Amino acid sequence: MAEVVLMKGNEAIAESAIRSGCLYYFGYPITPQTEIAAYMAKTMPKRGGVFLQAESEIAAINMVYGVAGSGKRVMTSSSSPGVSLKQEGISYLAGSELPALIVNVQRGGPGLGGIQPSQSDYFQATKGGGHGDYHMIVLAPSSVQEMADLTSKAFDLADKYRMPAMLLADGTIGQMMEPVVLPEGKPNLIDKPWAANGTLMKRKHNIINSLNLDTPDLERQNFERYKKYAVVEENEVMYEDYMMEDAEVCIVAFGIAARVAKNAIAAARKEGIKAGLIRPITLWPFPKKPIAAAAEKPELKGFISVELSMGQMIEDVKLASSMKKPVELVNRAGGMIPTPDEVLTAIRKMAGGDK
Amino acid sequence: MKRISLFCGHYGSGKTNIAVNYAFKLAAEGLPVAIADLDIVNPYFRTKDSEKELEAAGIKYIGLPFAGSNVDLPALPAEMYGLLERKDYYVIMDIGGDDRGAYALGRYTPMILEEGDYEMFFVANFYRPLTRTAEEALGVMAEIEAAGGIPFTAIINNSNLGPITKPETVEATRAEIEKLSALSGLPIAFTSIDASMEGRPNLPDLFTMELQKKPF
Lengths: 355, 216
Fold this sequence. Notes:
The complex is a heterodimer. Chain A is an alpha/beta fold. Chain A has helices at 9-19, 34-43, 57-69, 80-85, 87-95, 122-126, 144-161, 171-175, 215-235, 255-270, 288-296, 313-320, 340-351, and strands at 4-8, 24-27, 50-53, 74-78, 100-106, 137-139, 164-170, 177-181, 239-242, 249-252, 275-280, 282-284, 302-307, 327-331. In chain A, the strands form three sheets. Chain A has a seven-stranded mixed sheet, with helices on both faces. Chain B has a single domain, classed as Rossmann fold (3-Layer(aba) Sandwich), CATH 3.40.50.
């Protein structure tokens, strides 16, 4: 029988990671994600794993780089300012084709910012963050259950494509408590013949490196990597389609914003306004096709991007819809969360009911 | 009825909800009540969220100087000493989770022990992953007592799975809370439940709580 427990989002990430075969955690405390590190500190030694509080976020991501090179599942977690510090290491992971999980439980920024929830690291997560041409797989949980499920999924995808994956959460989902059914603990571990884990004198040694001074060859590597990214974009897009079949207003929102949006949609439908939601679960690869398809529907009046940022994902909504319909923004920033009423007002306006 | 009620437990066990509702209950009985938020661990969901409702009920609210201000400092409120010395209020203290939270209590321990008129409650939720059994909960109790320096006097069963909690969910933890009572030698003060739950568990001493609704 599946075990149901009541967990904080941060705890769900930690427990799910261990059950997904991740026995190496390196991190540094920062609100609002510290429960991940605290849970790992308490639990890892009992489960045969390693918890290490690094001297900094930079040290932690480089420890992740080392373990990832040995072929073991490994993760780090932080919140926005700490994730900025990890960007160099993430770029090295991408350049060395290494799988690892980086968790960002976002808080308001920029700079030291605040400790309340935010989604303003969308650009950083989906458009690079570190230097060079690369992508990470970016997953956006919207419930404590998804914190657990997508942690597991992130490890599988990272291994499958040999690339870093990020869980992009926010302080609210990290801190809130909900019932969770945990993964069973039969991780989907695959062979990693590329790992630098000892030759046993039976094979040529593997080299893991992001340095390549042979310029044409470095170009070739970049093109190869982007062929891989094209496969990810083709095969790994995840999104939730919520009441979109007859929608005249399409909200696009992820994470905690999507939950607020669903409440607003329920209120709008009570008033007879047909609102729906496309909720990206993968932020990279972004669900371009369903948004493009919605933009073609004659009954659709437009899109509303609901975000806890000054408007970052809205750029991808505009690109995906080719601006065939208007794209509006409902947003709060700096740690504030949009209310269902604020979203409802925008829905009414787009539907033409608010005179 | 003791003058000071302390609520401690594993973090996320429901201490704040119980402390706030306990304050409402005492105020409804006409007692002068003060509630002190001493949770230095969790900067998110906390007593301050109910500040307006508490003050409307005539309950004196004392918060951490930086609570809700986004300044993540574990500073304790100065008014706390006054509350303990003047003895003009029934005082409810909401303590942060685990032993780390209970360190904040240590500063007031000599005054509380000297007065002696206190109840120290351990809040248990057996659906929390690190307190699934009476033995695990007993371990957390020992850690909190060592950090806070005040022995527990009673236990509270707040076992729940949030919005999907049913009467059977709570009833299923009866054996575990009774085991914890036997192991610790402490009485079960009450079993706390969300007022919006459909039906009621068939258990003695139910304490019904109104919980804050969130917009997501």
